[in-house]
Amino acid sequence: METRANHLWVGVVTLALIAGLAIAIVWLAQLGRGTQKEYDILFQQSVSGLAKGSQVSFAGVPVGQVSEIRLYEKDPEFVRVRIAVKDEVPILVGTTATIQGSFTGVSTILLDGARNGAPAITCETTACPAGKPVIPPKDGGLNALLSDAPLLLQRLATLTERMTQLLSDENQGEISGILRNTNQMTAELAATGPQLRATLGELEGTLAEASQALDAFEKVTNSTDKMINQEGQALAAELRSTLRSASAAADSLSATLDDARPATRQLTESTLPAAEATLQDLRATSKALREVTERLENEGAGSLLGKPPLPDYEQ
């Protein structure tokens, strides 16, 4: 009986020592970590690979660990990850959180992007939906690639299917025909090489002649411009003198017409009617003289002195 009681006390003491040692280890660990601050990160993506106790690093330096992972109560599309980091770590406005995955399946949280001089992330500078300041997330790293892997595989399968359709037996035959036609066209083009060279030579000669013609035309144009510039002024001066003389002659003619208007009016009103009457008298006199002349020719001079004979009547 006594032996069994001793064993019982030994077991109790051993358990007490183990519990004390565990408590001391936890206390030393908490003491080594120092004061910590907690933040929430709301990820709208898979957080596979993260677990309670996963490492949190700032610019590659370990600064804390994940303390809690659960679905966001207000919106189940998000996963709320709570992290605890050392108090001296500068979690400033502009800091973002990224899930850094690996091929081993273990993921960590990477903090980066703090700006010097920016205020610290607190409930005063950001939202605190679960009582802790929120660090905004950012897609990136291997985790984002793995999250998009199903979509990439689907697109790769679609691309493979379309490539299979493109490289079907029928399409391969058509592609082979196109290649044969291309080879034939290349051979024909090579055969017509001498003709092409001759044509190009003629084209070069034509271009040279055209260039010479353009040079000659440019010279003629320059000569014409020179003649116009040198003799044009003299011609213009003579033309201006001629126009001035014509203008003076027109003015003189206008003045002459103004002076001749009264004489013309008198001629029209008095002289012309008198002349017309005189012409009528002359016509009558001429007619009488013509009649006298005809009588002298037909009847003689006696017809002018005696009476005209009586006509003979037959009995």
Automatic annotation (TrEMBL):
<keyword id="KW-0472">Membrane</keyword>
<dbReference type="InterPro" id="IPR003399">
    <property type="entry name" value="Mce/MlaD"/>
</dbReference>
<keyword id="KW-0812">Transmembrane</keyword>
<dbReference type="Pfam" id="PF02470">
    <property type="entry name" value="MlaD"/>
</dbReference>
<feature type="transmembrane region" description="Helical">
    <location>
        <begin position="6"/>
        <end position="29"/>
    </location>
</feature>
<feature type="region of interest" description="Disordered">
    <location>
        <begin position="295"/>
        <end position="315"/>
    </location>
</feature>
<keyword id="KW-1133">Transmembrane helix</keyword>
<feature type="domain" description="Mce/MlaD">
    <location>
        <begin position="39"/>
        <end position="102"/>
    </location>
</feature>
<protein>
    <submittedName>
        <fullName>MlaD family protein</fullName>
    </submittedName>
</protein>
